[in-house]
Amino acid sequence: MKLYLRKGLFLLLSLTLISGCNALDSWPEYSAVHEQTEKKQELVSIYDQLESINLKDEKRYAKAYENGKYGVIDTTGKLVIPIEYDQVLILNDGRVLGTKDKQYTLYNAEWIPTNLTEVNDQLYKWDSINFDLNLNLFKVEKQGKFTLMDLNGKLLMEQFYDIIQAVSSLTPSDGLVSPVFLAANRINQEYNVDVYNLSGHSITPASYRQAAEDGYFDVVYSQLQSGEYIVSIKNKNMYDGYDLEGNLLFNAASEVSFDYSIYTVIAEKNGKYAILDKTTEAADFAYDNIQFYNEKSVIATQKGKFFLNTTAMNCLKKATIMKCGELGEPWIIKGMSFPRT
Questions:
Q1: pLDDT tens digits for range 260-269
Q2: What is the 3-state secondary structure (H, E, C) of 258-281?
Q3: How far is CA 32 from the centre of its chain?
Q4: Cα separation values, 228 from 13, 172, 264, 297, Å
Q5: Is 145 exposed, middle or buried (0-12, 13-18, 19+ CB in 10 A)?
Q6: Which of 42, 291, 293, 328 is the most core-located residue (most Cβ within 10 A)?
Q7: Whether the Cβ atoms of residue 46 and residue 63 lie closer than 8 Å to each other
Q8: Rg (CA), the chain
Q9: Considering the entire predicted model, what is its pTM?
């Protein structure tokens, strides 16, 4: 009973437990969750040669450091954010968050600064405020519990939790922000787990009880080829699946996997399989077996018939299933022959 990656790409499907943030006496400390721990090679003076600067591969700019202050420099060596901040964080969407004199300033892609007044007005209201780069949201602490706040200073949830963290992905995330997060409260030796989207809308109708052994929660998300997301969460020894709006796509599945050959989720329930390549319909557990065919295709078996599902032509679709040949014959789709391997 587990979530896994097909074709041997096994992934440990639980999330590393992110510890609570430490509060300072009067000023919130940055949490290690932003994963920009200062390393020597990242602290560069603007007077150093450009070749010595550790630039971000995609964003094409980097932090600059001098005399205990931070700024940002681009590939030409031009200073685009002045070196006057106590700290700067390069966000996943390309914006930059800086703090100076205990005030937050946000720079957009054109390097235009905006003072985050609504956030700054709340800095002394809470025990601590830390920015989480995995969610592009502030984590707010009150009496050892946490909630989230957006860049407009709005709390996403009124309820505070023992643990809040981004949900892990079954698919390559390329450093992008997680579309969902989990929030958990400890109950004796277990946790009540809720899952939210980034608007603060709960996608789970009720809390799920999980043991979180070794600090891991059984909650993951997958991004389909269509760009849609499916969230899978363990319910006792089975799994339920939701879209980002909280619509139930499947329940009580014994296994949930992600198949890279067709870039979609495959769920198993009572010995039957469902292919979830979109989130507009609930899972249909109609197939007796699903097996790897080639790098872009799988073969689905139903009542002795074989069907080919391929990312190239998306042959297998709900309500428009195309028979791709009998056993012993090639699978022919739209005039193209797929010989058996």
A1: 877 889 999 9
A2: EECCCCEEEEEECCEEEEECCCCC
A3: 18
A4: 20, 14, 10, 20
A5: middle
A6: 293
A7: no
A8: 24
A9: 0.73
